[in-house]
Amino acid sequence: MSFQLRRAQRLGGASLLLLGAAATAAFAQDSAQQPAQDKASTEIPAVTVTAPSPIVRRAVPSRNAGRGTRTARVRSREQTAEAAPAAPVPAAPQQGVLPIVTNQFATVTVVPNEEIRREGGGQLGDLLFSKPGITGSSFAPGASSRPIIRGLDVNRVGIVENGTNGGGASDLGEDHFVPIDPLATNQVEVVRGPAALRYGSTSIGGVVSATNNRIPDALPSCAPSFQAYGLPTKAPLANAATSPCVTAETRTAFSSVDRGIESGVLLDAGGGNFAFHADAYGRTTSDYYIPSYPYLTDQSRPVNGRQPNSATRSDGASIGGSYFFQGGYIGASITQNDSLYHIPGIDGADHKTRIDAHQTKINVKGEYRPDAAAIDTIRFWAGATDYRHNEIGLADPADLNSDGIRQTFTNKEQEIRTEVQLMPFNARFAEVTTALGFQVGHQELSAPSPDNPGTLFNGLWDPNTNTRVAAYAFNEFKFSEATRAQIAGRIEHVELHGTTPNFPADYLPDGTPQAAIARNPSFTPKSGSIGLLQDLPGGMVGSITAQYVERAPKAAELFSRGGHDATATFDIGNPNLTIETAKSVELGVRKATGPFRFEATVYYTHFDNFIYRRLTGVNCDDDFASCGAPDGELNQAVYSQRNANFRGGEFQSQLDIGAFQGGIWGIENQLDVVRATFSDGTNVPRIPPVRMGGGVFWRDDNWLMRVNLLHAFAQNNVAVIAETPTSGYNLLKAEVSYKTKLDRNWFGAREMMAGIVGNNLLNENIRNHVSYTKDEVLMPGIGVRAFANFKF
Predict the structure, then answer these.
(1) Is the pTM of this model over 0.85?
(2) Are 421 and 198 in contact (CB under 8 A)?
(3) Angstrom distance (rounded) from CA 102 to CA 480
(4) β-sheet bridge partners, residue 472
(5) pLDDT tens track for 107-149
């Protein structure tokens, strides 16, 4: 037995022992006999999420009852929707406490603000890399890494920011960055299950929702700063928020592994009926350190301890504001994201490939709670994105004068979504709350390449458009305080317009030049879900959901016909693709309070007509005529459909063992597994490996200390063609952070959080199996990240 296998077995056994110890200790512990200090330590503030459902529950008795006089409803509305509402002061979250969401019908992973500040990461995929059931594509670590949920990515995982599509082109190529920077994000929610029906059929795998305050939904509150500065508080603090108020926050970090520097400033101001927000941020890194030689296929290239061609630079800024009126608000923002990053790997290093990307995004958002007997709230979102990036590099690696634009991607996208939440009503058997939604979207894509001027097909696809119109409904049934159910449905209509070649060669057999054939497919996918949420003994909550989701093919799957450097494939779209169907069942048990907090989920999904890129074993160069050449640099990939099955589960837990040195110490665990096969038993490509981990933590009101080891087992379940096995790895992390209120003499700052995080402390070779570049790109080696945040 190899040393690596024995070590993996020992790690697995140790983690299982930790899991068993956590469960045994939790159920043996009587909460009624806890010391007062321990009880206080487990008073966990509720986790607030916004992405999973359009139904917002409010703790207003007259609303919840769904009955009473119109006068009572109006009075309730006036109490909860003042003309200029002040932002409530939420319960301060405890650092390091595992956030568990128990009031939703499927698993929701939440990364709160303080965790984002501690963990860092230049992309959402980096931030979520180690979360159970989630990883990142890691095509270019720190620069382009899109979240992958339960083995599903790109066309099956939605990414939204403040309720609208994130835009960009990350779903069109793994080398493309996600234009949502964690440095300017306050919370990230990863939602599985029925959320697909709210955001579209392209969210079968889940939705990653990033939120910030770029469109304020409440006035900033300066009340905490009054207390911190020791100023008089005779007047009600809520009234102080209606006076002119300005708050600010700075976010700064340094990382050793890539000599990285990041910094951001956020400003919020308000008074009367207006609130404003502005932020600006930037980050820069050099080529990052790696533990050993990165290239498995070529050992002849010089590497000086760093991943060649992996430097990054990005920056952005946003300004927005809202106007508040009786019963609601309306606001808008404009955001600019810019990124210049290099693409690691043999081809990227040889050609000095880098991507120069720019996105301008305008968002509008509003909410209105009318004086009506039937309507509770009307909400709307609108967004317009203008995205463009140039892929720059050497046409000839031996000729430095051949540097220039090799490909351009553009995406112009508009979206409007409106939701109406109705007043709850008593249907005798249950209290029923309904929300109705309507969504319209339009997208124009192009990907021209100057490398083949004058040819009919000189890019990955011709310019193409798609239009989407959808309506959806969510119904929640409250049978009792302990039993709730949800029924939801969605219908879409999708129209696409593009072209495909009439024959896979430069010329037809009779010598006629190849022509473009117009294609105008349309689809009407229909989806539905049903879920049950049940309170269980011991503070646990159980859920079961069943879904039927149809997905229309996307433009890249239909119209591609050219080289795709990111995946080293020559992609050939299939205009004959039909609707993809997913039938899913998910069962979960969660517990958010007490000394033992956990969530456990198992799921099964059957896909009919699963769309994927099927590698044929044929090699190509830059055009159709080259396909079949034995020395072609690209693998021919044809979009195809087959039935497939995905099954797996996730578990994470945290146990507060007891008091120690004025704080609480405990242990935590996690496990995730996904297995995906086609109907003939062969493997779906690029599926994450089994991962298991655990750690120890200590925390009090100010300090958090944690050590955590995550072990990924070797992945040998690979596709038949052009996929290689990947070795396992151990990712050891440790962190120390300190959070405190500050005296007013501290240059005006009222709160500080600072800390140090050590990543990959074993300096192991980590290759991410889901990455197309895993055999040429190592994840960063041992490094230390120091950060400091100040609130003013």
Answers:
(1) yes
(2) no
(3) 16
(4) 437, 490
(5) 899 999 999 999 988 899 999 999 999 999 999 998 999 999 9
